[in-house]
Design the sequence.
């Protein structure tokens, strides 16, 4: 016998009495919180919520769900019965607001219409009901203005211009000084504007007003500003918005009425107290629009003590209930307090850390929950120095905020000058059209980097973030002339080399002259120069200290540093690094050593090659000794030489010009000619996919074995000095296990020779980077010859997507972000579906072959908060990032661990 089942009926409308704060997916944040406050018995004007599901149907099909109109009618009938009024009736009108309300707060991004239900007839009834003609006509003009702009698409400036003319005619400056007769005339003017611009009359049917307003709110989900905001905040585009229909309460009924915004704590500092603004005789949008000056919320006590006391009690109730800072909107209607909205309030980074620890101390939340209340992005904000906001400044340009912070210095236009001036004690800003690896010395020496080209993943941006260096990229308004050592700013002003400029890496702004900088106490804490104390700065340090200590206790992922010298290694260790996950040996070959590598690459005979290697070996060994000393007792993963060949060779164009000029002048040029022939022979169309990494080590005999010998001898020397070196040798760009096997065999032989020569036992792990799709797909085979994998997610992203990292951002990344193809650059946050899938696959395959295989990541993603959570989920052992990002990675690793615990418990 078949079982009869009733068809599932989808419910599209919920009364405020039916929902709760846990239904944000369905009712949106505003609707869920209005329902929650109703359940708590707080004074919320009655109303109902149309769900996000109804919005999704509308957006998918272009039409509202068939059942929606009847459901809205049923809830409207119930609301009218409860209020004893009818929507828009002539003698006793019910008025409602129609407000958006998505799951995530999107302040000001979507639409709201107040005073729905007013018409030429009902405005008379409202005047009689309120005993105030002015109030009624003011409410009506507000409706036509909001409805015309929001629903009918009329240019809002037309209404504002008409309002300004009315005030000029009356010789007043604020709209509250307009009288009923003035506002009645303004209503007539507004209706004419609607008729002319929208091609239709302002609707007099109150139900038509409400239905059109509902559709307008649905449509606003896909408005330009809403889409832009979602991209910036990484809010999914398929959530839809709820619509809240709420009976109107009026703050513009006279001096015993008003509207305001309140916070249960200061969102800027986190301190407890009375924070917010209040405006008498006003509706909510007046506070936001800044039409009139508000008064501090504390003054409400002297204006209306009864409402003030009730509000304070409600604020305490809400904070204890939500266990967090609450942002509250309220209206007072002739002495009656009404709650219009509450939500967990946005806060500054400093306030987030303070509030989290305060709530723990008050027993409202535990440390696990507190850790979820702060983020790595907030911690990063706290670590960067910042400009004094009170200073007078002259802004001349704005670029891309590539690496946060505030930097002041003399403009210099090449790396050599940056280093020279810096060594003389000058603070400099390196200004370039764009940077390249040869600029590294100058970037290190500079206080900050400014480029007129490039974006957030350009060379300048990536390196600057890695060093914790302030950087503004892509300031296209600037004309940078490196030959004449100057740049021209908008307006024609010329900045010569040596002129002082200031750049703000948090906003992308560029200033002339020196803007005073305020240091970050949080960095001083991580550097060991500041300890938790009692004053305001120390209070923040105390909060950060407590959150970091808890994160360290909870996290499973270890955090290492990307560091290439002892100075960076020591700083990383102070910041909490548990080793070095990536030492890029190519950075040790820049500057004067570059010529030695050039000799090695261009050597024609074995003697020439041996001479070049002999010259490099002691320098490399010294580098490694210093590194092992700085990181004594902790693992140090050293990547053998990796960059494209062309980075060590002269520029082919410059060399060709030099040879041609020498020939025309009949000057000796044999060496340059020989060099040019070699460069032509080695020239590559796509060097990033050419002779680099393991391929270079296999083609140039002795290169990798020289580096392995330097590592082994350095480790032996440190052991002899009673140190505890823990070196790991990493082979880059491996695509097949055979490459690794050949290099490993040679490396093992060198290590054995050093052991025999020094009488020191050396345990040097040998592993590889997984940075090619083929390596990830054959990871099970590669693990047979590797003791560890480190995922090079920068190159893996390039090769999976087929992107040239140096080119794509400038050419089409902006368009991809604007069109929503990317929510965020895949070089900034790991592409979980593509690149992430290969990481997961390789990790699982590698451990099937070698269960004790150590797994880490050393790409740029190692310090990205969202990516750290992914690496925790797929079971990596550690992440490695720039020294400055180490605290961020530590915090996020702790947050990832506590989130996993919560998922397991559920």
Sequence:
């Amino acid at each position: 016998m078949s079982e009869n089942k009733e068809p599932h009926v989808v419910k599209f409308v919920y009364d405020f009495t039916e929902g709760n704060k846990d239904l944000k997916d369905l009712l949106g944040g505003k609707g869920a919180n209005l329902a929650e406050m109703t359940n708590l018995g707080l004074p919320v004007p009655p109303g109902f919520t149309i769900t996000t599901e109804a919005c999704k149907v509308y957006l998918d099909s272009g039409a509202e769900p068939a059942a929606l109109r009847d459901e809205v009618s049923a809830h409207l009938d119930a609301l009218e019965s409860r209020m004893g009024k009818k929507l828009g009736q002539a003698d006793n009108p019910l008025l409602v607001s129609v407000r958006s309300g998505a799951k995530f707060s999107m302040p000001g991004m979507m639409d709201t219409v107040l005073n729905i239900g007013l018409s030429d007839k009902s405005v008379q009834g409202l005047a009689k009901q309120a005993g105030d003609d002015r109030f009624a006509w003011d409410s009506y003009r507000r409706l036509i203005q909001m409805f015309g702009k929001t629903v009918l698409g009329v240019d809002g400036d037309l209404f504002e211009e008409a309002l300004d003319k009315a005030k000029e005619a009356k010789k007043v400056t604020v709209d509250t000084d307009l009288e009923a007769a003035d506002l009645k005339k303004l209503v007539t003017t507004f209706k004419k504007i609607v008729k002319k611009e929208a091609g239709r009359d302002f609707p007099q049917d109150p139900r038509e007003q409400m239905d059109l307003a509902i559709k307008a709110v649905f449509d606003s989900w896909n408005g330009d500003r809403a889409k832009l905001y979602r991209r910036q905040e990484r809010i999914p585009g398929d959530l839809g918005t709820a619509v809240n229909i709420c009976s109107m309460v009026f703050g513009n009924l006279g001096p015993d009425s008003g509207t305001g915004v309140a916070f249960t704590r200061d969102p800027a500092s986190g301190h407890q107290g009375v924070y917010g603004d209040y405006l008498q005789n006003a509706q909510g949008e007046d506070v936001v629009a800044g039409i009139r000056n508000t008064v501090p919320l504390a003054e409400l006590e002297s204006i209306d003590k009864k409402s003030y006391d009730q509000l304070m009690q409600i604020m305490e109730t809400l904070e204890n209930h939500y266990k967090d800072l609450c942002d509250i909107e309220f209206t007072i209607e002739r002495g009656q307090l009404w709650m219009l909205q509450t939500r967990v309030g946005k806060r500054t980074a400093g306030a987030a850390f303070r509030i989290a620890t305060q709530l723990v101390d008050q027993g409202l939340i535990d440390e696990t929950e507190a850790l979820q209340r702060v983020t790595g992005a907030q911690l990063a904000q706290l670590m960067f120095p910042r400009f004094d906001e009170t200073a007078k400044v002259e802004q001349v340009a704005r670029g891309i905020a590539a690496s946060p912070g505030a930097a002041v210095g003399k403009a210099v236009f090449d790396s050599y000058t940056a280093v020279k001036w810096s060594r003389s004690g000058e603070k400099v800003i390196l200004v370039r059209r764009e940077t390249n690896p040869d600029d590294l010395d100058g970037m290190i020496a500079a206080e900050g980097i400014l480029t007129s080209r490039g974006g957030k993943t350009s060379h300048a941006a990536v390196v600057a973030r890695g060093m914790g260096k302030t950087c503004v990229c892509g300031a296209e308004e600037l004309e940078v002339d490196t030959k004449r050592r100057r740049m021209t700013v908008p307006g024609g002003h010329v900045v010569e080399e040596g002129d002082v400029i200031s750049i703000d890496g948090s906003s992308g702004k560029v200033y002339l002259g020196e803007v005073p900088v305020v240091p970050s106490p949080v960095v001083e804490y991580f550097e060991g120069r500041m300890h938790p104390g009692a004053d305001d700065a120390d209070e923040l340090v105390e909060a950060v200290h407590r959150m970091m200590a808890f994160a360290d206790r909870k996290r499973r992922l270890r955090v290492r540093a990307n560091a290439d010298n002892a100075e960076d290694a020591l700083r990383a260790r102070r910041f909490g690094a548990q080793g070095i996950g990536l030492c890029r040996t190519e950075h040790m070959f820049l500057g004067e050593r570059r010529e030695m590598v050039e000799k090695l690459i261009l050597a024609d005979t074995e003697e020439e090659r041996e001479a070049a290697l002999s010259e490099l070996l002691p320098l490399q060994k010294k580098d490694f000794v210093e590194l092992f000393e700085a990181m004594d007792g902790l693992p140090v993963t050293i990547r053998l030489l990796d960059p494209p060949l062309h980075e060590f060779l002269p520029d082919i164009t410059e060399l060709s010009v030099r040879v041609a000029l020498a020939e025309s002048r009949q000057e000796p040029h044999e060496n340059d000619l020989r060099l040019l022939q070699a460069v032509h022979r080695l020239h590559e169309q796509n060097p990033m996919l050419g002779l680099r990494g393991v391929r270079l080590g296999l083609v140039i005999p002795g290169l990798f074995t020289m580096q392995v010998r330097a590592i082994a001898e350095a480790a032996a020397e440190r052991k002899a000095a009673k140190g505890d070196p823990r070196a790991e040798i990493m082979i880059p760009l491996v695509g097949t296990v055979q490459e690794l096997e050949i290099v490993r065999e040679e490396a093992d032989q060198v290590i054995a020779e050093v052991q025999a020569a020094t009488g020191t036992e050396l345990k040097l792990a040998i592993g590889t980077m997984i940075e090619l799709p083929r390596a990830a797909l054959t990871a099970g085979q590669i693990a047979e010859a590797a003791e560890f994998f480190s995922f090079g997610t920068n190159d893996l992203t390039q090769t999976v997507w087929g992107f040239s990292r140096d080119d794509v951002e400038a050419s089409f990344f902006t368009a991809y972000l604007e069109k929503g193809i990317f929510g965020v650059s895949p070089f900034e946050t790991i592409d979980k579906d593509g690149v992430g899938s290969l990481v997961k696959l390789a990790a699982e395959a590698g451990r099937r072959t070698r269960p004790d295989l150590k797994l880490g990541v050393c790409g740029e993603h190692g310090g990205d908060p969202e990516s750290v959570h992914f690496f925790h989920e797929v079971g990596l052992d550690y992440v490695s990032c720039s020294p400055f990002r180490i605290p961020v990675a530590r915090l996020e690793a702790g947050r990832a661990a506590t989130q996993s615990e919560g998922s397991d418990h559920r």
About this structure: The mean pLDDT is 89. The chain has four domains: 14-247, 258-347, 385-519, 555-586+609-644+695-897.
